[in-house]
Structure formats: C-alpha cells, structure tokens
Amino acid sequence: SECPDQIKAGIFFFLGKNQMDIDNFGPETAEFLIDQGFIKRIPDIYTFNYNNLEGFPGFGSKKIKLITAGVQQSLNQPYRRVLPSLGIPELGKKAVELLITAGFRDIDDLITIAAEKDTEKLVEIKGIGERTAEIIITEFSSSKTLELIDNLKNAGLIFTEEEISKEDMLPQVFEGQIWCITGSFENFKPRSLAGDEITSRGGKTTTSVTGKTTHLLAGESAGSKLTKAQKLGTTIITEDIFMEMLNTND
User: Fold this and answer.
1) Sheet with 178-182, edge to edge strand ranges
2) Strand partners for 236
3) For residue range 120-149, what is the model confidence (pLDDT) as tens digits?
4) Measured between alpha carbons, how far is 48 from 46 in angstroms, rounded to an integer?
5) Where do the structural domains in the chain lie, given as residue ranges?
6) Which class would CATH give 178-247?
7) Run of H or E including 25
8) pLDDT at residue 1, as a whole number
9) 79-155 belongs to which CATH class?
10) Alpha-carbon distance 218 to 96, whole Å?
11) What angle is formed at CA 130 by the lines to CA 129 and CA 134, rounded to 5 degrees?
C-alpha cells in the first residue's frame, strides 16, 4: 500500500495549479487538512464537511464558504482536466488529449480496453508508445485506480468528454496565437478558466513569456511577466478587453 508521503503527494498533485486548481484551496489549507486527518485520500476533498473547520485558527466562516465554493465549482472541470489530475504515470495532459481525439472519450473506454488487455489498440494512436499503453492497461485494471475513479464519480466529477459538434464549436478567433496569463482576475477564478476560454477558441497557452508569445493577459498585480512582455513588445490585454473579445465573437 502507499505510504503517507505518497498519498500526500497525490493529493497535492490533484489540487495543483495545472491540475484541478481548486480556488481557495492552496497548499497550506491542504497541508492542514491532511495533518488533522480530515483528508486521507483524494475523494475526501469532496466528502468532507468544511463547516467542521469552524473554530480552527485561520478558518473563519468566510474562508470556509470560499473553500466550499471552490470545491463545488471544481465539479465543473472537464474530463480532459480531471483525468490528468489523478496522477497516473504517463497520463499527462498531452496523452489524455491524444486518447480523447482517438475516441476514448469516457473513462469506461479505458477501463474496458484495460480489461481486454488490448495494448495494440492503444499503440495504434500516434503519440502513445508501448510504455504508456502498458501503464494504461495496468493502472485501469488496478483495484486502487478503479476505486478512486468510482469514488470521484460518486462525488460528481466529470469522467466523459462531450462530443463538440461543429455548431457548438466556438469561433476559433485565437487560432495561431500563444497566450500567457498572469495576475488575478475578477471573472476567472481560478485563472486557468481564462486559459480554457483561449484554448476552446483555438489559441495555445504557455506559462512563460518568450519571443513566441503573441499575447499577455494581464490581471491584477501582474509582475515580472508584464515587464518582460513590455520589453518584448508582446500585445498586452487587460481583463476588460479580454471579456469584450470573448463576447464579440460568440
């Protein structure tokens, strides 16, 4: 079985900025909840009653409300974000995108293929190697992974990627653009939601400003990235302008 440190690392990974990125649920909050024994595994994030924190230092009713709202909101995260958050080796964002594009649009597709031990079918997908295929087969046959998925499904997380029909597809107005996002935003909490708006309209997002970055979305207290973007002559977009860009093109 996993040692406490592995379990803790798994919970931290799940909550990470590039994974579920639950608003108001930072590392300190996670650390405290784990140390107190309130959260022993990932699904506990969704079953724990945060009102029980009333009375602990640093957890006033406002903070508790914010955490609860953040957890609730994370139930809307799409499958392509949920699956890489589970911390399964080799199953990062890129591999998950490849699987979805190849038609594995539901967690049950992966469970079925694992039960059939059909490595061939996975290796046929361009970009999925032998090693990744074998890990998928092993992981999705393991009772530990299946129990985790079951518990998270029961909590209400999304384990299927809806087909986007051409009509539903947003206008690809950011096609060919590379955006970096910095600072905090009124309408995008967590700010990864702004990134989702960009990628669903054909743009790419990156974590650092380079010569290739075409746009910087600058929120409140944007720091060094803003300075760098100004030096490089990158197009700088404020939240208000960004909201207008989203609204005029939908």
Assistant:
1) 204-206, 178-182, 215-218, 235-238
2) 216
3) 999 999 999 999 999 999 999 999 999 999
4) 6
5) 4-75, 79-155, 178-247
6) alpha beta
7) none
8) 62
9) mainly alpha
10) 29
11) 120
DSSP string for 40-79: SSTTHHHHS-GGGGTTSTT--HHHHHHHHHHHHHGGG--H
With residues binned 3-state (H G I as helix, E B as strand, rest as coil), the percentages for the chain, rounded to 5, are 50, 10, 40
The full length of the chain comes to 250
Structure tokens at 177: 């653009």
Cα 239 to Cα 6, 27, 231, distances in angstroms: 39, 27, 20
Q: Does this chain's domain 4-75 share its CATH topology with 79-155?
A: yes
Would you say residue 14 has pLDDT above 90? Answer: yes
Please indicate, yes or no, whether the overall pTM of this predicted structure exceeds 0.70: no
Residue with tokens 């060919």: 176
Two tokens, residue 33: 């909840």
Residues ≥6 apart with Cβ < 8 Å to 120: none
Task: Give the up-direction half-sphere exposure of residue 201: CA atoms within 13 A in the CB hemisphere.
Answer: 18
Q: Which of 168, 149, 72, 74 is nearest to 106 (CA)?
A: 149
4-75: CATH number: 1.10.150.20
Phi, psi of 225 (to 5 degrees): -65, -35
Q: CA 125 → CA 108, 132, 198, distances in Å?
A: 18, 11, 26
CB neighbour list of residue 150: distance below 8 Å, 6 or more residues apart: none
